[in-house]
Design goal:
Blueprint lengths: L23 H4 E5 L9 H4 L8 E6 L2 E21 L5 E10 L7 E10 L6 E21 L8 E4 L1 E4 L1
Antiparallel strand pairs: 1-3, 2-7, 3-6, 3-8, 4-5, 4-6
Length: 159
């Protein structure tokens, strides 16, 4: 018997298996411009690790730099930000380098407005085709108005 839901095409969507996220704990070194000890970067980068995500120790622009031990291809980058307390417009820039000391290349520049009464989360999932990534940088300006917010990152995954 063939079955079809009315209003849908006869072809089914192909389900691809979940991509394997890179094990950053074992293949990378991470640099952060600042870190609240109660919100370590590990809780944002490690799949399966419970925690509140990363938060900066001070207000203003912040940088997270992931330095891979060995350059490798990257096909997907997933970011998640959450803000439930402060209305603010955040901007982030995601960049990569193919070698240490090489010129960074911009992947994306994105702005998002958080509102405690409405939009409290942002998830960005980028399909990329980067041949040999040595360094991945995430620069966060947590508030486009004068520095009155602290940068945070709920999750970052790389495949």
């Amino acid at each position: 018997m063939r079955k079809r839901i009315i209003g849908q095409s006869g072809t089914a969507k192909v389900q691809h298996p979940q991509e394997q996220w890179l094990d950053l704990e074992n293949i990378a070194e991470v640099e952060v411009s600042s870190e609240d000890p109660n919100f370590p970067i590990e809780s944002a980068l490690m799949p399966g690790r419970q925690g509140p995500g990363w938060r900066a120790a001070e207000k203003g622009a912040q940088l997270i730099r992931i330095i891979l031990t060995t350059s490798m291809p990257v096909h997907r980058i997933r970011l998640q930000f959450e803000e439930t307390e402060v209305a603010r417009t955040q901007e982030f820039v995601l960049r990569w380098c193919d070698r240490p000391g090489g010129p960074p290349k911009e992947i994306v520049r994105q702005q998002w407005t958080f509102s405690p009464q409405g939009s409290t989360g942002e998830v960005e999932d980028y399909q990329v085709n980067l041949a040999e990534v040595a360094i991945l940088e995430l620069a966060i300006k947590p508030d486009l108005t004068p520095d009155n917010a602290v940068a945070s990152l709920a999750m970052l995954r790389i495949a």
